[in-house]
């Protein structure tokens, strides 16, 4: 399937989570077998071009895209988790949200020293979570060589923030607005 055909599978929900927001719902793409397989194929091709040695996915939908890519490519998958989910000593990072802070964690044993990692999530908005994940993976010894997303909301500047931090960022599709 073409990227335009994949784009047509993303549902737009107006005024969610608040008035004036156009929510881009990737679950309709994931729920379309051929579309989801095609999206994974396109993303895996980009990760191969970056000579990925591991795929890292951000909880939760980054797990869905990233794990499918890693399995397709025969690569290790590194989960970047919300706090308290990993049963081993972790590396953690706190990062700012629009209203407050959050934390991400990773098992440092899941990251091979110097491994070329491609970071994956379903959507890039402001980039705060992705930037925190990059820093965490770097602390664990990985080399984040690419970030990939199914959807970019370029008006929010997240992909540009990643590029400014030295991490190439690409998405299969972009939607205007918030």
Automatic annotation (TrEMBL):
Domain Phosphoribosyltransferase: 35-152
Coiled-coil residue windows: none
Alphabetical keyword list: Cytoplasm, Glycosyltransferase, Purine salvage, Transferase
Gene3D superfamilies recorded: 3.40.50.2020
Pathway: Purine metabolism; AMP biosynthesis via salvage pathway; AMP from adenine: step 1/1
Keyword Membrane: no
One term of GO molecular function: adenine phosphoribosyltransferase activity
InterPro entries membership: Ade_phspho_trans, PRTase-like, PRTase_dom, UPRTase/APRTase
Keyword Cell inner membrane: no
EC number: 2.4.2.7
Reactions mediated catalytically: AMP + diphosphate = 5-phospho-alpha-D-ribose 1-diphosphate + adenine
Cell compartments where the protein resides: Cytoplasm
Family per similarity comment: Belongs to the purine/pyrimidine phosphoribosyltransferase family.
Functional summary from the UniProt entry: Catalyzes a salvage reaction resulting in the formation of AMP, that is energically less costly than de novo synthesis.
Assembly and binders: Homodimer.
Name the record gives this protein: Adenine phosphoribosyltransferase
């Amino acid at each position: 399937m073409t990227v335009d055909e994949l784009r047509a599978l993303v549902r737009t929900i107006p005024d969610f989570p608040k008035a004036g927001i156009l929510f881009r719902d990737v679950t309709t793409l994931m729920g379309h077998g051929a579309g989801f397989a095609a999206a994974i194929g396109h993303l895996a091709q980009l990760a191969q071009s970056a000579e990925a040695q591991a795929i890292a996915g951000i909880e939760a939908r980054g797990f869905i895209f990233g794990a499918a890519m890693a399995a397709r490519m025969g690569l290790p998958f590194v989960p970047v988790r919300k706090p308290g989910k990993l049963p081993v000593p972790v590396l953690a990072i706190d990062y700012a949200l629009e209203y407050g802070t959050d934390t991400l964690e990773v098992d440092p044993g899941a990251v091979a020293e110097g491994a070329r990692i491609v970071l994956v999530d379903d959507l890039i908005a402001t980039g705060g979570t992705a930037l925190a994940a990059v820093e965490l993976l770097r602390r664990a010894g990985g080399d984040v060589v690419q970030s990939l997303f199914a959807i970019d909301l370029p008006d929010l500047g997240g992909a540009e923030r990643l590029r400014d931090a030295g991490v190439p960022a690409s998405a299969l599709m972009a939607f205007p607005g918030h």
